[in-house]
Design a protein that fits this description.
- By secondary structure, the protein is α/β, with parallel strands linked by helices.
- It folds into two domains: 233 residues, Aspartate Aminotransferase, domain 2 (3-Layer(aba) Sandwich); 88 residues, Aspartate Aminotransferase, domain 1, CATH 3.90.1150.
- It has 14 helices and 13 strands.
- It has a seven-stranded mixed β-sheet, sandwiched between helices. A four-stranded antiparallel β-sheet has the order 9-10-13-12.
- Helix 1 packs antiparallel against helix 11, helix 2 packs parallel to helix 11 and helix 6 runs parallel beside helix 7.
Length: 340
Amino acid sequence: MTIDLRSDTVTKPSAGMRQAMAEAEVGDDVLDGDPTTRKLEQRVAGLLGKEDALFFPSGSQANQAAIWFHARPGTELLLEADAHHVHHELAGAAALGGVQIRPVATPDGLLTAEALRAALRPGYNYLARPGMISIENTHNVAGGKVMPVAVAVAIGALAREKGLPLHLDGARLWNAATALGEPLSMLAEPAATVMVSFSKGLGCPVGSALACAASARADLWEIRKRLGGGMRQTGILAAAALYALDHNLARIGADHENARRLARALEGHPGLRPLAPETNIVMIDLVRDRETADEAVAKLEARGVRVVPMGRKRLRAALHLDVSPQQVEQAARIIREVLA
């Protein structure tokens, strides 16, 4: 049996989730609205403390819609240098929105108001003007790192001071809120728009939402349509997300405990250095020169454990609801044996 730790997106819908999808009340979301989708959008808006929300097929599309909405072409998007926008959205900000990315390097993936202030360009007439700021919580490439509330609040204050809109890429905001023990609305409060993903951590097959001001929804709807996101009986997908919010959100802490369990089981291995996880992601560094991450991934897959490379000498394992504590222990044993 394969233990798939490549991502928390590999989960399969449970029987209860499939039943909810099969029984969903639906309509045509482009023509006159889908009632189940609208229920989900209002639920998400309430959770995030925003006036409204819009359902999207993917988090990347929702992020791109936010960039298109907030930033004029020819301006800069300021963000952490290893953010999702930088590495995993196929240069969408430039290709679709005409927006230049201005990456701000940090030692640990935690963007701060101080780092942003230092990166803001002076107002010379030959330099691109800043257009918006984006933050990511949790930070994927930094190993599921959590942005504390005070840090986000300080960035929000800087954004208001400079007259810049702030977007929150909160694909795994569920994990951040669980780790901090804070309500989702508190983490979302500094940002004008907030993206959350239902397929990461919550066990849904597809779907994200972009929370926003009520006045922004019509423009964001047009942008989504322009990006190819006009969908019809979306209630089938929205029902899965509503089910997940009712049944899977409260259990996310179990994934964090499994991440800690995996990291503890790998401690002391001479060839590995697991990083202490803050949420459900464990980064594992290969400390010997003779083996690359790609080679390690292939060896582990041959033994039934699937992880992903995150650079030449780093592996990533993501824990999720389809992995039990017993499977975590089994995966740790295999990793220790294969990479001995």
